[in-house]
Amino acid sequence: MPSTTTDTSAPEVSATLKTPPAIPARVAGNEWYEGAQETLKANLAKRPIDRPAKNVILFIADGMDPTTVTAARIFDGQQKGMSGEENVLAFETLPHLALSKTYNTNQQVADSAGTASAMLTGVKTKAGMISVSDEAMVGDCQGALDNPVMTAGELAKQAGMAVGVVSTARLTHATPATVYSHSADRDWESDADLPEGAEGCTDIASQLISFPYGDGIDVALGGGRGNFMPKEMADPEYENRTGRRTDGRDLTAEWEAQGGTFVWNKAGLASASGKVLGLFEPSHMQYDADRSVNDEPSLSDMTATAIHLLSADEDGFFLMVEGGRVDHAHHGGNASRALSDTVAFDDAVATALAMVDLEDTLVIVTADHGHTMTFAGYPKRGNPMLGVVVSTEDDGSPSTEPYPAGDGKPYTTLGYANGPGAVLIGHDEDEHFERPEVSDEEAQGLDYQQQALVPGYSETHGGQDVTIFAGGPQAYLFDGTVEQNYIFHVIDFALGLNQRAEAASAE
């Protein structure tokens, strides 16, 4: 009599589970199926690097949320002659991913000071404060003095490592400042910014020069010359500009008196050695789309110089690199410059990946917070990322005419939920307000401000999670959705910062 027992065993599959099965004949030659199989092969070959790191590079693109990443990927691909969607950015090749929750302790939608402080110190704090714990209040000098939190930069120097900070923003701006300073207010960038009653607190620029650990910061490259020079001193590049300091101190001269080199242009950076302070603009550096390639180094140039100089330390290095102006372009409602600076940031990551070995260097790429840029409208494959929406016909073939919005007018693929490009829709007794026409040529212009829903002199940050991309020793610890301050803890674990700093102080 035949058995009635049901066979519940699993079907036979690959014994090793380390190689994908053969491609079925029914899908042979299908580029999507075969491409996914190649991705599966690559992922099956990945193995965690579970050993201490010698070096860590933390890349932060200010304001680079997932929508910005996707739009920049397509924009970059189209600049290379591709349709764009199939492109892959350099940092997207890193093998490990996580999502980072960006809120501050007092704000649902964060600012850069609180978020960068979380990544550099391991604790979340209020918006507007630099490497100070949540126990202090914004603007409270004594509270900041009583509640500083050690930064990864400080711990690395105590551990005997080299430390560098690079940014296209002012070096005294919120994100780079969290590497080396503590402040009750992110706006206290020079002594001219300190309010009455802030006795005992020092400005952020001064703290870079007087960094008290080890032999000081080794490499600092970015903008913000004005905060390091007295107001009586002429700027070396712009004849009508002077410094901002009211205390008469020339911090660039003080840096040189400590044995360092100060440079202010691309040529100076190319020949610099030893401990280097590079300040390439009185305020923020130029957007990459506006940069003079002869006079101002790119973020990639600065990253390469920093890695070259810091690598001379046999004890390893910690480097923070910020693409600071992605955020500024978003605030201006200007997607063109935001995407260009995101691509320039990716170029810097590519430069770093070509210079370091992921067997001993942990590379982390993330953002501090998001923005309100939207990506919508059913544009056809390969539609210009900055253009108006041209969709597909009913049969799926590409159209040639802009797809109209409900008001019958074209609209762009990228827009903002709020900001200076806002359009007033309504009427009063005298005038009816309509959304302006936008041509594809206008939309793709460098200075175009994307249309926005809610008016505002500046577009705001967004509260969405941002992505963490990572490769190298202990990078596999980035997994799932994590609090933003967790990033510091992986860095600390990978380098043994606290342990090494404590051991050094005990000697």
UniProtKB/TrEMBL annotation:
Origin species: Aquisalinus luteolus
Sorted UniProt keywords: Phosphoprotein
Chain intervals for the UniProt region annotation (Disordered): 1-21
Identification of the protein by name: Alkaline phosphatase
Taxonomic placement: Bacteria, Pseudomonadati, Pseudomonadota, Alphaproteobacteria, Parvularculales
Family label: Belongs to the alkaline phosphatase family.
Classification via Pfam families: Alk_phosphatase
Biased composition (Polar residues): 1-11
Recorded superkingdom: Bacteria
CDD domains hit by this protein: ALP
